[in-house]
Design brief:
alpha/beta; Rossmann fold; 171 residues; 6-stranded mixed beta sheet
């Protein structure tokens, strides 16, 4: 059985991971893949960061105000990329520490739109269960801001479990 948990650094995503560990891997203390129902279980933690957006014809053009483009040096763009990679690694490091005594987990850092990338990678890896957290947005905010969990629930090719935050669960 392959379980994938989407981690974005938010409290909701770490709550979803903790819920997964407590409810799917409860009592399994083994650094090797756990065995649930006679099957080896693998946990994959995936983090997707947005690509650096480019504007105009030049790959290093960025908006600096209304009708104004600024051109960033290659060094600046590389620095931003490196910073994104460090942030992603830090987020997944925290998630791995949570898994340490419960189950061995692998990590994956992707670049792109989180909605598409999570659905695509879960299909490519033949995931049996996709777990994502929910920020608990209302209908209007979800319609305006979008929702990764809502998108995954509709478009992922595998069963998707949306773990709502505690405050939502108690209402």
């Amino acid at each position: 059985m392959r379980v994938m948990v989407g981690i974005d650094g938010s409290d909701a995503s770490f709550y979803a991971l903790q819920w997964t560990l407590d409810n799917l891997f409860n009592g399994l203390i083994s650094p090797a893949p756990a065995v649930v129902g006679g099957e080896a279980t693998l946990l994959t933690l995936v983090h997707v960061h947005q690509p650096i957006k480019h504007y105009g014809f030049a790959p290093s053009a960025f908006p600096a105000g209304p009708g104004v483009l600024a051109y960033a040096s290659t060094t600046l763009v590389d620095s931003v990329r490196k910073s994104q990679e460090q942030i992603s690694a830090g987020i997944l490091s925290r998630a791995l520490k949570m898994c340490k005594d419960k189950i061995k987990a692998e990590t994956l850092i992707l670049e792109g739109d989180p909605t598409d990338m999570i659905c695509d990678i879960s299909e490519q890896m033949n995931v049996d269960l996709l777990v994502v957290g929910s920020r608990g947005l209302g209908k209007i905010k979800r319609a305006l801001l979008g929702s990764v969990s809502d998108y995954c629930a509709h478009y992922a090719k595998c069963p998707t479990l949306i773990v709502k935050p505690l405050k939502e669960a108690s209402k």
